[in-house]
Amino acid sequence: MGMKIEVRCFATLGKFTPADGLLDLPEGAAVAAAMAALGVPPEEVKIIFVNGKAVPPETALADGDRLGLFPAVGGG
């Protein structure tokens, strides 16, 4: 049985957001597996949010979770 998570990739990572905003994953998959399924290079992700809380990439996801991926922000 699989699960669906809602995905938003921000700024320079926006191109990795699924067209419908949803990703199908195996039950219990971690954030890192979601990033791999989306093709997001881990080194480009600075902050990961699941349901509004900052988490590490090894965090397990559950059906209906909201995943947000943010890149490092450059400034000048």
UniProtKB/TrEMBL annotation:
The lineage of its organism: Bacteria, Pseudomonadati, Thermodesulfobacteriota, Desulfovibrionia, Desulfovibrionales. This is Thiamine S protein. It comes from Alkalidesulfovibrio alkalitolerans DSM 16529. It comes from the Bacteria. Gene3D superfamilies: 3.10.20.30.
